[in-house]
Write a structure and sequence with these properties.
mainly alpha
Length: 73
Amino acid sequence: MILPGQLDKVLERFYASVCKQDGTDYEPEFLKVMQAALDRHLKEKGCSFSIIKDREFFNSRKVLKGKARKLRN
């Protein structure tokens, strides 16, 4: 099982680079939907932490918010 700190770093890189197969960016709102789906999947697999709420995931949430803000502009 991956530790929260490790997962936060993986999510930072994922959120910064995620895009559609054709190379275009997702809509900013879809990024939050993606995050919620990942959080739900982790809970279903028995993880006791939340990538949306827990402080261990502050950095990845910051990257996600920054990317969404950039896409809105």
